[in-house]
């Protein structure tokens, strides 16, 4: 702009000096004025502030008689101006439509084992189990007594009054207990002695292993008793027997006096176990 202003001022001053007689000079002046107008009114008004006169040259001036110069050739086009500064960001646009779902990705790697969870609530009670085997299958016991006086000697005393013999391990025909379940057994007997002495022995497999002897006193009723614990194997037999002749066969029984013999399994023992 300052270059253009200089050119215009030069033309105007030339016009003043040359008296404005040449119409070509006037055309150049008008063209210059138009160019200034296109650049801005403020630029056009500047000459008035500086007191310059753009009116046609006065023929009465001394320079009116001078010869006008040949108009100069138009200058070259100036260099393109530099790019302007970037404008401010525009307003935010509306939200766009949702895009289509992408393809399913590949399965990820297996993760680490997590921490144990809290303890759960108790479950419902289970169904009732099947009926088990009878306890008698694992038990052996008997308790028997005499219903009358036994006079036989050197044979097993045959107890024929039964208090308990559900497993029938005591045989009232032979008068012997026969072991079915191997294990440890307890035997005990309580005998009433009357009219004569009593000497009995507890036998195991034809061998007397313990003895009880009571001397009878006249007009008295005596008692004789004994007990023992034995380890028995299946098939072993245990019984009571008068040990001696009839003089020691005082084992007695009536309606108000009993003589009893009892035995039961304390606990079973595996036959494979060493004794
Ligand atoms: Ca006695």
UniProtKB/TrEMBL annotation:
InterPro entries: C1q_dom, Collagen, Collagen/C1q_domain, Tumour_necrosis_fac-like_dom. Residues 135-272 form the C1q domain. It is found in: Secreted, Extracellular space, Extracellular matrix. Residues 80-112 have a biased composition (Basic and acidic residues). SUPFAM superfamilies: TNF-like. The keyword Transmembrane helix does not apply. Residues 40-52 have a biased composition (Acidic residues). PROSITE patterns: C1Q (PS50871). Pfam families: C1q, Collagen. One of its GO terms (cellular component) is collagen trimer. This is Adiponectin, C1Q and collagen domain containing, b precursor. It comes from Danio rerio.
